[in-house]
Amino acid sequence: MGRVTDLYDDHRITGLGLLVEAYAGIMARVGSQLAAHGVASAEFEVLIRLTRSPGQALRMTDLAAQTTLTASGITRVVDRLEQAGLVAREACGTDRRGMFARITDRGLSRVDQILPGHVAIIDTWLFAPLSDAQQSDMLSALRTVRDRVRPGSVAGADRRPFPRIVAPAPATA
To answer: pTM, whole model, 2 decimals?
Structure first.
């Protein structure tokens, strides 16, 4: 088979490479900021997804679909967050096998501490260099690609909110 040298400079390869480089650069800055708060990136990803969801809760399966974690990975992260009193699990009223994860008041307080610095990093490194039109185009393009490659990622976004539960403080040793 012959070489495909015409693809070496293909704009699609360039586009993916730029996306990966931009993501890695931003996530390195985000990771440092989260570490200063004692929170891992995966934990914050779960907390912010729950915070922004209807009723501030999601089925565990929907949470896995919306994050970069596997179902078993979500279980481990939610276990840690539950032990810290930041998330509570609830049984699903319509499916005995289903479980919800819900952010607690303590979890919301933690997000409130982290979020201003988090948004500042996102603004500085992702949005500030772009015009308003470029920002809008980028969000639209990212949604289009996300919906194609991860069609389940908006699962749970259309559920009605339900009452909040305040989880007990974690036991201390």
So the answer is: 0.80
